[in-house]
Amino acid sequence: MKSIFIFAAAFTLILISAPIPYGSIAVVTATAFLAALDSSRIRLQTYQSRIANNPFWTFVLIFLFWIIFFPWYLWIRKKIIRGEVPLRQSQPS
Asked: Which of 1, 35, 48, 54 is 20 to 30 A from 72 (CA-CA)?
């Protein structure tokens, strides 16, 4: 996992030196991808949050609406790590 973060950081630094649109797209794509990987690791879908149900939708939401959903993801992630977000209750079938 650490090697993915190092690769993403290096990739982002290389593309930031490119013209602004490419650098911005690279940062948004890299952070959305890393958030999707991290949401899978912390099992975001098992907690009561409205941000996303699975890593794919986490990636899509952050990629398309980065300015809103990336800070929201970081905030909810911090609350999950602290233990402040309750687990979802399973639906009776």
From this structure: 1
Query: Which two structure tokens, joined as six digits, stand for 66?
Result: 């980065």
pLDDT tens digit sequence for 65-90 = 988 999 999 999 999 889 998 888 87
Query: Residue 38: inside a domain, yes or no?
Result: yes
Residue 91 lies in a domain: no
Contacts of range 84-91, beta carbons closer than 8 Å, 24 or more positions apart:
85/47, 85/48, 85/49, 86/47, 86/48, 87/46, 87/47, 87/48, 88/45, 88/46, 88/47, 88/48
Asked if the structure places residue 27 within a domain, the reply is yes
pTM for this structure? Answer: 0.70
